[in-house]
Specification:
This protein has about 270 residues and is α/β, with parallel strands linked by helices. The protein contains 9 helices and 9 strands.
């Protein structure tokens, strides 16, 4: 069942279920197992863990993390997309450590405008691929809503992309894409540093670990889809790149289809222990 909230962002761009399904294996491989293990040791197993997953979409974070945590767990997945939330409920995580079943509830809302007390009683707050989409004000509101609660904030882009084989146009595309990520005052690749700075100011313990996508021949479809979005965003920000973008894309797609393109997209995971 989806609990209806009153705050659903009208400016949000919908993320397709197909894209989320395509990226889930790469996300799972990238997330920091070290931080998940550290979190599991920190959490108490008395009673039921109440976990809020902000911007959780189709529930991939829960499917990765729940089996790594102990005890009974109830996940509340927050997102503005009702269709994705239906998928989160339908595809619940595997049992927790010890074999305990994990339950999932979906809640449709704008996570940048959580009401005071909406996360009351939470044992843990998680998010994945969220922080770089926020403005500084939105980040401050999200972190304030989570104050005093452990947080695992995964897969925030850091602005570094490496493609092999290299091409002269790579650097210009990367710079334009990073500028596009910062549009409308969004934090983009500055989000990790901004979040860590604000959280450490509260006295919390903040651990940051790399969580890069490493895309090779087994990920050719994901690499091709990611590349198309990367180039499109770069050209939107810097239209002068469009003259070379078609030929550049053509070469890169041939490489991907042949299993010859290797892409590293750097992200970082943050574990916050108050």
């Amino acid at each position: 069942m989806i609990a209806e909230g009153v705050r659903v962002s009208s400016e949000a761009v919908r993320v397709s279920p197909e894209w989320l399904r395509l990226r889930e294996p790469a996300d799972s491989a990238a997330r920091s197992a070290e931080l998940a293990e550290r979190l599991a040791r920190h959490l108490t197993t008395d009673g039921q863990l109440l976990i809020h997953d902000l911007g959780g979409g189709s529930g991939a974070m829960g499917r990765w993390l729940a089996p790594r945590l102990p005890g009974r767990q109830h996940w509340v997945v927050h997102d503005r997309d009702a269709d994705l939330l239906e998928l989160a409920v339908a595809d619940a995580p595997d049992p927790a450590v010890g074999g305990t079943a994990v339950t999932v509830e979906a809640r449709r809302s704008d996570v940048t405008r959580l009401a005071p007390g909406e996360l009351a009683g939470a044992s843990l707050v998680t998010a994945s691929a969220l922080l770089d989409l926020l403005t500084a004000d939105e980040l401050a509101r999200v972190l304030a809503a989570c104050a005093g609660c452990p947080m695992l904030l995964a897969l925030t882009v850091t602005g570094r992309v490496t493609l092999t084989p290299e091409e002269p146009l790579d650097a210009a595309m990367g710079a334009a894409f990073n500028a596009h990520q910062r549009r409308d005052r969004r934090l983009g690749p500055d989000a990790v540093a901004a979040a860590a700075r604000e959280l450490r100011g509260t006295g919390a313990e903040v651990l940051v670990r790399p969580s890069p996508w490493r895309l090779g021949a087994p990920h050719a479809d994901l690499a091709a889809d990611w590349l198309a979005g990367w180039v499109e965003a770069a050209c939107e920000r810097e239209p002068t790149l469009a003259a070379e973008a078609g030929a550049y894309m053509g070469r890169r797609l041939v490489q991907a289809a042949a299993g010859e393109l290797y892409v590293t997209v750097d992200h970082a995971d943050l574990l916050v222990l108050p």
